[in-house]
Amino acid sequence: MKNTFCMLNVLHAFHDNNLIKQSLLNRYKSVTTKQYPKDKNFISSEKHTSTMIPTGDDLHIVFLPKLTSSHMIPLVNAARVFAARGVRSTIITTVHNALLFQASVDRDTAAGHPISIHTVTFPSSEVGLPVGMEAISSAPTQEIAGAVFRGMMMLQPTFEQVIRDLVPDCILSDLFYPWTVDLADELKIPRLMFQPSSAFSLCIIHNLRVHKPHENVNSESESFVVPDLPDKITLKRSQVSEYLKTKTGLGDYFEQIYEAEKRSYGLVNDSFYEIEPAYVDHLKKIKDTKVWHIGPLFQFFVGEARDNGVSDKHGCLSWLDDQKPKSVIYACFGSLVKFPEAQITEIALALEESKQPFIWVVGKAGIGGLPDGYGERIKSKNIGMVITGWAPQVEILQHPSVGGFLTHCGWNSMLEAMVFGVPVITWPFFADQYNNEKLVERLGIGVGVGADVCNLSCYTASQIIGKRGIREAIELLTGESVVAERIRQNSKELAIKAKKVVQEGGSSVNDITALIAELKHLKLTPRS
Asked: Where is the signal peptide (predicted)?
């Protein structure tokens, strides 16, 4: 397949080999789940069902997202985009995960789009989890993340039967479901593999697997050139994911993904041609397969809440209204990264000493490690906000007061920064994030804090970045140097390009249109 590492959430769930092997065995075991009558599994409105008019080339695609938000959100958005173009789209997921995007699907069905959700029951008791703990991104510990992943594997027989019953014309599944290629062959329909990542990153991973340049250096700190790429890209061995350096159960699982990729009809990426034209072309060459770039998928729905009359305004947005243009640093490390208290202290001091106003999102569980009196100081000085829980990231990044984004380089966050022209301060942590940092360097849209160790998972930190490195990156990005001005200009120009790709005639819209046309043609040309 391809280097599906982009969401190596599975990494934090599984760097124990025995756990992985057991989970792979569980893929093929049946699970006792409550089977709902078919019509009750669909969450759709009467308007939706009544407006379905079958035609000779009526196309039906099932979308199967991985049970973690960074993979689920973009694939759900893909389903919505296809439905808006008249393609009957069915999203298959578990009951509690469906709640995360139910409101969006309800709006689409109310608008007459042929989209629905088909839910199955997550095997909570079988994996020892409380009811409702169904997403890897919500797991507070590595052990719980592993249990969620095992539950996802155990759902394979249930998912397979649901797809058979739905009789779709195509399966568009997350890369973490390699078995869907066998099911597609059985049903004589195409299977498309969804990659929530860039072609740039996928090319790097492919060449690391094939050429293994990291095996030719003598230490973790030594740099090497990734061969056979359109540009000279260097990495340190320490920045390479462990499964690519050492034989592990996780690596064995990825081999299954790569094999399934080879047999898939094609790849669908949440990226866009304009940021990586040479790498899109190179990816098609080295993979010898069809590739469609249809992102940034979230951008098709920017402003949706406002358009639907949502008037509640998060408090941080009101605070941003009172700040100077391009002055605020937004710090957020995604839904997965878990920093130790020692690192939290360094981040807190760096933000305070930078003299820049900031918003720092720390997650639902809150954090330890804040310096004594920190909250009171930043509040009394009105220099920042620490948000515990959810924050409206898209709205924050498009606010005119935001001038920089301190980020873990997760791909969804990277796309949002590009679309809104916000320069980034890169702090990659694990998985594909170091590759994403390299793309930032190539595009000239950010600076780094100096991280150079790819962690085993989002739950382990092998390197503490001191406050000085973080503060200096902030000061460089917000300063008046030639470098800072160039970064801001590059970010602004990239945002202009990004906005055009989801407009009619844009590259991503063209790829979506072409893919739909091709799938319709395949439907009318039965496979033997």
From this structure: none
CA gyration radius, the chain: 23
pTM: 0.88
C-alpha triplet 436, 442, 445: angle, nearest 5°: 80
Task: DSSP letter for 90, please.
Answer: E
Burial class (CB in 10 A: 0-12, 13-18, 19+), 450: middle
3-state secondary structure 229-256: CCCCEEEEHHHCCHHHHCCCHHHHHHHH
User: Tokens 């199967």 correspond to what residue?
Assistant: 64
- Options 15, 60, 71, 408, the catalytic residue: 71
Domain 304-500 has CATH 3.40.50.2000: yes
The C-alpha atoms of residue 267 and residue 263 are separated, in whole angstroms, by 11
DSSP H helices, 178-336, are: 180-187, 199-211, 242-245, 249-263, 277-287, 304-307, 315-321
The domain locations on the chain are: 4-295+502-523, 304-500
Of residues 12, 108, 113, 174, which has the active-site annotation?
A: 174
Per DSSP bridges, beta strands 170-174 and 60-64 are parallel
User: Is 214 one of the annotated active-site residues of the chain?
Assistant: no
The answer to whether domain 4-295+502-523 has CATH 3.40.50.2000 is yes
- The reply to whether domains 4-295+502-523 and 304-500 share a CATH topology is yes
Mean per-residue pLDDT pooled into runs of 10, the chain (528 residues): 38 41 40 32 34 58 96 97 98 97 96 98 97 92 93 98 98 98 97 96 96 96 97 96 87 92 97 96 92 97 64 83 97 84 94 96 76 89 90 95 97 97 95 95 97 78 90 97 98 97 97 97 82
**Is 282 among the residues known to form the active site?**
no
